[in-house]
Amino acid sequence: MKTKISNGNSKLGTIANMSLTPGKTCSAEACAACLKEGCYACKSYRMYKNVRAAWDSNTQLAIENLPQMENDLMEYFGSMNAPRFFRIHVGGDFVTEEYAAMWARVMAENPNTNFLAFTKQWANVINVDFPENASIVPSGWPGCKIPDEILKKFNCAAYCDDGTNSSEIPADAIECPGNCSTCGVCWSLAKRGISVYFKKH
After folding, report:
1. Helix H or strand E encompassing 175
2. To bridge 33 with a disulfide, which of 120, 134, 141, 158 should be the other Cys (CB 3.0-4.6 Å)?
3. How far is 57 from 4, CA to CA, in rounded Å?
């Protein structure tokens, strides 16, 4: 069993990415909020058999054989064709602190790739030292508030705008235009000290 990496999707364009099973790897806060109220990753997970198989396989590795996953990722990002930009978790989240620390090692060893991950697994990332080429973006949802210590550590955030929570979204937050391959701003949110918001979809 090897780690399954996707070469893109309708929103990310051609940006490579890797995911885990939504819900099973998400925080209690996420499961009580976005998972029930419109998780877009769950839609893909339910709709496409090949997506479900890949994400479930990756989740099994992340939980049961993390060294294998780390070896797979080191090999992938160490190759001549390693991408300049990579998205972690179209679906799923940093399931354990050990898993998050594994990603931090992979990022540090591969400085020519810029990594992006949105997360509500705050307890699993707060103590991990991510390198400069990582953009770890805390993700809020109506009824799921990002802790202040997390906002301070990562210097940015992402918010879901469902029309009821405008007061929670910073006035200078950027609205997501909907296509990562033609925008790419989320890979530099922390460096710029700004946030982004997404219309609920």
Report:
1. strand 174-175
2. 141
3. 8
- 114: helix, strand or coil: strand
**Could you give the CA distance from residue 150 to residue 75 in angstroms, rounded to a whole number?**
31
CA quadruple 37, 40, 44, 92: dihedral sign: negative
> Do the beta carbons of residue 142 and residue 198 sit within 8 Å?
no
Alpha-carbon dihedral of residues 174, 119, 12, 88, nearest 10 degrees? 140
Sort 38 into a burial class: Cβ within 10 Å, 0-12 / 13-18 / 19+. Answer: middle
Can you tell me the distance from the alpha carbon of 87 to that of 153, in angstroms, rounded to the nearest whole number? 20
* Residue 39, token pair as written in the block: 């998780």
pLDDT tens string 162-197: 776 666 788 888 888 877 878 888 898 988 888 998
CA distances from 142 to 154, 164, 165 (A): 20, 8, 6
pLDDT digits (tens, 9 = 90+) for 109-155: 999 999 999 999 999 999 999 999 999 999 988 878 899 999 999 99
| 3-class secondary structure, 18 | strand
Query: What is the reported pTM?
Result: 0.92
Mean pLDDT, rounded, of the chain: 89
Q: Which residue has the tokens 């939980």?
A: 63
pLDDT at 8 over 70: no
